[in-house]
């Protein structure tokens, strides 16, 4: 679960709700173990020693897919117009990406074992 703490569309409270729902569905009990992933708060939730759920909280980031433009193995995406905060402006353009220093699709695929 990726969550920007400045997201005005899917607010940070949703992270707590999603975590609680997935922990219940997966039968996970107890608190998660928090560390960092590329400078962001990263929490893993395990069941019998197997990580079943993870969340990343990105400080100061608004609504959009987290990208880390570059050519490294864990980089990708494009952020032509950063949307640091959700704007209540019908004339504003949104590209729905945010340069966060972490490439969400890459780390999601890695978590699910789709890439090594």
Keywords:
two-stranded parallel sheet; globular; 2 helices; 116 residues; 4-stranded mixed beta sheet; alpha/beta
Mind explaining what this structure looks like?
- With 116 residues, this protein is an alpha/beta fold.
- It is built from two helices and six strands, in the order E-H-E-E-E-E-E-H.
- The chain has helices at residues 13-26, 104-111, and strands at 2-4, 33-37, 40-47, 50-58, 65-67, 97-99.
- Strands 1-4-3-2 form a four-stranded mixed sheet, covered by helices on one side.
- The mean pLDDT is 89.
Give a quick summary of the entry.
The chain has helices at 13-26, 104-111; strands at 2-4, 33-37, 40-47, 50-58, 65-67, 97-99. It has 116 residues and is an alpha/beta fold.
Task: Report on the biggest sheet.
Answer: 4 strands, mixed
What is the radius of gyration? 15 Å
Taken as a percent bin, the fraction of beta residues is: 25-35%
**Total of DSSP H or I helical runs spanning 4+ residues:** 2
Principal-axis shape: globular
Main structural class: alpha/beta
Distance between the termini: 19 Å
Give a count of the beta strands, DSSP E runs of length 2 or more. Answer: 6
- Poorly predicted segments: none
N-to-C series of helices and strands: EHEEEEEH
The overall pLDDT, averaged over residues, is: 89
- Oligomeric organization of the protein chains: single chain
Helix content: 10-25%
User: Numbering strands along the chain, what is their spatial order in the largest sheet?
Assistant: 1-4-3-2
